Amino acid sequence: MTQKSVSLKSALSVAIKAARAAGKVMRDNWHQPKRVNSAEAHDIKLELDVRCQALIEKILAAAFPQIPVLGEEGSTGDITAKYRWVIDPIDGTVNYFFGMPHAAVSIALQHRAESVVGVIYDPFTDEIWTTTKGQPTRLNGKIVHVSKRSKLEECVIAMGFSKSQDNLEKSLPHLVRIARRAKKIRIMGSAALELVYVASGRLDAYVERTINLWDVAAGSLLVENAGGEFYAVPGPHGTLRMCADNGKLRKKLQVGSLLK
Question: Residue 224 sits in a domain of what CATH number?
């Protein structure tokens, strides 16, 4: 069945509703024991991740039953279709599990693999970043912009990296080099929030060598619509290598070799 055109305004409204609903579940369970579905060397999967994604899917499907979902906790429908939702129900699960209130819900709508709606909700600060293609990025309804800082010595740069031997060998030298020049380095554990912090001017850039689409599908659009740049190249196994910045720093960060 051919998918019809989707109203981005309606899609944004439903995505906001779904993000807030999942965020409420996160808040309601904040001080409760967490059931671990699986624990890897450097990651944790919670039963709550699955529950939050199921809730998001239910809300989205009620309004747009024809649109498939590509999610961290599994996919439904034909994810190669013209439209698809891309969901990370709890971005920053390890933070959340260990009691650090730095995690968020990330929902994007993509049209032919291009993000056209982006919503990221931080339930701990009650901050929600929203945008649609061609429109400004808003934080709780107010338009926000990337920073104007262009000197690394004045900038706060976020980095993240997976713990594979290859990534450590390539990422750590860049971390050391940037740390020597930048005002501060931050490794915060939630790609979605790092991206919207760039969009809001709280961070000046964010670099990560191996990341998944659901981590950045919403945040990349939020950065670009706030006046920043999101640069990504394909990595192994469907991952991405990316740099998000205020449009003034990517060359100065010298991350070309890191993203190869």
Answer: 3.40.190.80
Q: What is the DSSP string of 71-88?
A: ETTEEES-TTSSEEEEEE
260 inside domain: no
**CATH code at position 134:** 3.30.540.10
User: pLDDT digit string (tens) for 32-52?
Assistant: 877 877 666 556 778 899 999
Q: Taking the chain, what is the end-to-end CA distance rounded to the nearest angstrom?
A: 39
Residue given tokens 């819900």 in the structure block: 105
Q: Is residue 1 part of a domain?
A: no
**In the sheet where 156-160 sits, what is the strand order?**
184-186, 156-160, 205-211, 240-245, 229-234
What's the pTM? 0.94
What whole-number distance in Å separates Cα of residue 87 and Cα of residue 49?
Answer: 11
Residues 133 and 220 in one domain: no
Residues 6+ apart with CB under 8 A from 74: 53
Q: Give strand pairing partners of 38.
A: 45
**Are both 135 and 161 inside the same structural domain?**
no
Q: What confidence tens digit (pLDDT) does each residue in 70-93 have?
A: 999 999 999 999 999 999 999 999
Residue with tokens 């706060």: 156
